[in-house]
Amino acid sequence: MTGREELLDQSLRLLGRVMSWADPGRLEEWAELGLTVTQMRLLFVLRRNPGASATALAQELDVSPPVLTRMVDRLVRHGLVQRQMASDDRRRVCHHLTPKGLQTVQRLEQVGRTQLRPVLAQLSDRDLAQLVQALERLWGLIEAQAMSEPVGG
Length: 153
Fold this sequence. Notes:
Elements: H1 3-33, H2 37-48, H3 54-61, H4 65-77, E1 81-85, E2 93-97, H5 99-120, H6 125-148
Antiparallel strand pairs: 1-2
């Protein structure tokens, strides 16, 4: 294994450890809400893509349209998501978070922040700046890859 491959493996292991350390708090919140991980992912996708169509959501989540419809139905019943007809095409239905749905997403994000902030605060300013720079670069690569992939792929 090359030095680069070892660094990649070590990066993946460490990212996994950080995420698994932070997940229990979020998982407790999910359990309280009674929603599946995929339903929670749908809420986060809608936060990033308000007004997304059912087709786009099904492709993003890699689920069939009937599965997505059942998921959305449940989230609508919980008051977390709403459907609206597109103003430019009445055949197309747009999906949006309700205020309660947005509040739910924000609450889950806050759990992670509350848990990680005191740990990050122990890093030096230099280490924090390097971490931010590396994470911004990583996120930029993720976004670039997502934009270059065909929808649903």
